[in-house]
Structures are given as C-alpha cells and as structure tokens.
TrEMBL record:
Position of the signal peptide: 1-19
Name assigned to this protein: Lipocalin-like domain protein
Domain annotation Lipocalin-like: ranges: 32-154
Database matches in Pfam families: Lipocalin_5
Keywords attached to this entry: Signal
Lineage: Bacteria, Pseudomonadati, Pseudomonadota, Betaproteobacteria, Burkholderiales
Length: 165
C-alpha cells in the first residue's frame, strides 16, 4: 500500500505539460554547448583587437530552460610560481583576474530587437552579480556573436561562439 501511495504522489507531481499526450515544451533556441571563436574589442576607429589573446579558450553552455554558464580565458596566462593560489603574487592575481571572464545565470532572447539579456546570478567579477546585461546579437547558422555595450573608453567587447554539434 505504501508503494501505491508513493507512485500516486509521483504521478500527481508530474507537471501537466508532461502528462500523457501533452506536447513537449519547445527547447530554448540557443540550447547547447558553444566554444569560443573570438573574444575581441572593437575600437572607436573600427579596428578589431584581441582582448583575450589570439586564441582564447572558452565554453558557453545553455540548457533548454535558458540557464547558462560562460567561461572565457586568455591564452598564455602565467602559472602561479608557488603552485598555490593562496600564495600568489600581485602580478599573478592580476593576470588571473584580467585573463578570465566567468558568469552564470539565465538568458532571455528578444529576437525582434536582436538582443540577449543575461540575468547574472554569480560572476568572477562580483559587481555583475544580480544584474541584467543586454547584448546585441547575431546568429548565423551555428555561429553566435554578441556585443557588450561600449566601455567608457569607447571600446566594444565582442564574443563569437560556435555551436558544438
């Protein structure tokens, strides 16, 4: 009898959208794994420079509900000489901070306005936590690019990602 009660409770808990015969909810359009192609800056004069080195490393994962995680790393970041980040030098800490950008949260798409809005739950740069950041984006097949609003110096960070198939 206890088993039957548990099964009944489990069946009643299943959301209505998953009930027999109900259509599945559509996937988030950007769901999947993305690898970083470029992490650059567009300068006011139109010049494009590498913000995280010539071959940055990065991974962005987005699930079917729009939850995401982003990691971007500069190539060639120096290792901590002491082998322990608690004993790092100021220069090692600076290279670690300026050589990476990581955050996670939820993502919303406005396809008419061509914008992505990152609702950042947590980030290596703690000032971003709890903020929403809008980015203009372009999606061409399996290539996604988005631009961060211009920094005070007029530079515009640009990230380019390729979907992993």
């Amino acid at each position: 009898m206890k088993l039957l009660n548990r099964l009944f409770c489990l069946v009643m808990w299943v959301p209505a959208t998953q009930a027999a015969g109900a259509p599945a909810t559509p996937d988030f359009p950007l769901a999947g794994t993305w690898t970083l192609v470029a992490a650059d800056q567009l300068l006011p004069d139109g010049t494009r420079i590498h913000d995280y080195g010539e071959a940055p490393a990065g991974l962005m994962m987005i699930d079917k509900q729009g939850r995401y995680s982003v990691q971007i790393y500069r190539t060639g970041r120096p290792h901590f000489a002491g082998g322990d980040k608690k004993s790092g030098t100021p220069a090692e800490f600076e290279a670690a901070v300026f050589g990476s950008s990581t955050h996670f949260g939820t993502l919303a798409i406005d396809s008419e306005a061509r914008t992505l809005t990152f609702s950042i739950a947590s980030a290596a740069f703690s000032n971003w936590e709890g903020t929403q950041q809008k980015r203009a984006y372009e999606l061409n097949g399996d290539e996604l690019s988005y631009r961060v609003p211009a920094r005070p110096d007029g530079h515009i960070p640009l990230s380019v990602w390729r979907r992993v198939r």
